[in-house]
Design brief:
Layout (H helix, E strand, L loop, with lengths): L1 H16 L4 H13 L1 H35 L1 H21 L8 E4 L5 E4 L1
Antiparallel strand pairs: 1-2
Length: 114
């Protein structure tokens, strides 16, 4: 029975680890198209961002929440103006006639060439 429990636990762990999100797909895609090192650097960048978000959540959530509450109206106004700007520029932009070309300039910046 103990061996069966171990197999069920391993199966459950695999089922939890298998689903790939958008960042995982980005890492896989860059690994396949631009090499293993670019995939590794992309994954390290995503892990760094997750660590920063976790640090902010763990250490400064109360301070950030107080700041956001004090400046709610100003941030709503800035956000609304920014959304209006994005909408206006999107409406005025010419539609794309071809897909964007992707080029890599080293490990520091895969960029879109429009």
């Amino acid at each position: 029975m103990e061996g069966w429990t171990l197999l069920k636990g391993m199966g459950l762990g695999l089922a939890i680890a298998v689903p790939v999100g958008p960042i995982g797909l980005l890492c896989i895609r860059r690994s396949l198209t631009q090499g293993q090192l670019m995939g590794l650097v992309t994954g390290l960048g995503a892990a760094t961002a997750d660590g920063i978000y976790g640090s902010i959540a763990g250490f400064g959530l109360t301070a950030v929440a107080d700041l956001l509450v004090r400046h709610t109206q100003a941030m709503q106004l800035i956000g609304a103006l920014f959304l209006c700007y994005l909408g206006f520029t999107t409406l005025r932009a010419d539609p794309a006639t071809e897909a964007a070309k992707v080029s890599s300039r080293g490990l520091w910046g895969p960029t879109l060439l429009l």
